[in-house]
Design a protein that fits this description.
This protein is mainly alpha-helical and 326 residues long. Among the domains are: 103 residues, Receptor-associated Protein, CATH 1.20.81.30; 65 residues, no CATH class. 86% of the residues lie in helices and 0% in strands. It contains 15 helices and no strands. It starts with a helix and ends with a helix.
Length: 326
Amino acid sequence: MSPALFDAILALLVVGGGGAAFAFAGGIGGKAQKRVAAVGKVSPAVRGGRAIADASASRRKNVTTLLMELEKQQKAKKQRPTLRRRLERAGLSITPQVYWIICAVLGIVTAAGTLVTHKPWYVALLGAFGMGIGLPRWVVGFLTRRREKKFTGQFANAIDVIVRSVRTGLPTNEALKIVAKESPAPVGPEFTTLIESMKVGVTLEQGLKKMYDNMPTPEVSFFAIVMTVQQKSGGNLSEALSNLAGVLRDRKRLEGKIKAMSSEAKASAMIIGSLPPVMMGLTWLTSPDYIDLLFTQRMGNLILAGCVTWMAIGIAVMRKMINFKH
């Protein structure tokens, strides 16, 4: 082997060994690993975006779960309430036992008065049923509707008080206390019950459920949903309640518009429905012998029963036609 060829082979071996040593020592590999680490490393901005996305997804999941629970509660509330619950909604402080005693006294007095005037026994039975069962139920329903209407008229102002209190930096509980102290009945007593329940360990969600049990109106349902969602998922409470107050005022304005537009139909229905009883009373006063056959003869009783039935059906149909849901 010539010296020149030997030198060339030796140079190649030296270069190859040096390259292998450099490669195994981590020169190029270290840079590659650094590049891979740099590419795989998540920047703070990306981590922040992922955290926000995860928080939004969790919030949407919580809100969806909460709305499903509230829907189940609304379906459960459609069941017929107990007598005690109906008395509480009417604002009456009597017990069911006192209510039934009043019903029995009214029924007995009506039946006795009817029998004293020598009316048939079935007339006494119908009168006792109407005065002992029908009249108290109507009174309770009337008081309940009047109380709910009064509550709805004051509720938007109460929400505005909460909004202004929250915007000034007060906690939600303090804002609720202000409403309970400053608002007139029935809004004030309902919020007072809510505050007192929270003092003994009841959560806000449970207290709002109790409020809806006492005042089952859509406005209270909206308020409970907003407060519960804000408590569980966060958000701007003052803005949400401010929007709710605007919605409630829009509903009130729409109710007034519907009432004004349907007033003519309601007046016509009242006149048409009151004509038969009025004419019957006038005929009784002017010609009692002429109309007394309806009460003394069997055929007259059947005719009178048919007239009452058809009048009731007609009044129900007219009531359905002039009442609008909004």
